[in-house]
Amino acid sequence: MHFEARLNISPNISLGTDIVHIPRIRALIDRFGDRFLKKVYTAIEQQDYWQACAQAIENQVGIARLAGRWAAKEAVVKAMGTGWRGIRYTDVEIQRQGNGAPTVCLHGTAAQWATQAGGGNWRLSLSHDGEYAIATALFLGPGAE
Q1: H-type helices in the chain, by residue range?
Q2: Distance (Å, whole) CA 28 – CA 37
Q3: What whole-number distance in Å separates Cα of residue 116 and Cα of residue 132?
Q4: pLDDT tens-digit profile of 24-34?
């Protein structure tokens, strides 16, 4: 199951959302291992995955985090209105703040997009339930705050 949506609320506000089937991410890791991790996730995101695996009895917690980040990356590029055209997976990084809340950090072409958009702020929500992870990204452009 794959669902996606993008909504332009105003010229300065846009919304993207995505849902990921967690077993799909597990299958990609089982099949491609580190090659998949390095292609899709930044060093910080990979480090969070390995820490979650080390702290859990099994690595399901880490896999769920990766799935949530995948959904978040998809939601961000949908809110940008670009999709993945010209943007690498590692150009969109999902970090965790000290309180655990997710935050968006853009690099490369994605950062250039943000500069051309005049800057702005991101709001990000991730959730996990059973075999699914969902994320919603809200971009607040200049004057939208």
Answers
A1: 22-32, 34-40, 43-55, 60-80, 108-116
A2: 9
A3: 34
A4: 999 999 999 99
Name the nearest CA neighbour of 110 among 43, 47, 42, 19: 42
Residues 6+ apart with CB under 8 A from 119: 141, 142
Are 139 and 13 contacting, i.e. CB atoms less than 8 angstroms apart?
yes
Alpha-carbon distances, residue 126 vs 11, 57, 68, 94 (angstroms): 24, 23, 6, 10
Question: Is the entire prediction scored with pTM above 0.70?
Answer: yes
Distance (Å, whole) CA 94 – CA 73? 7
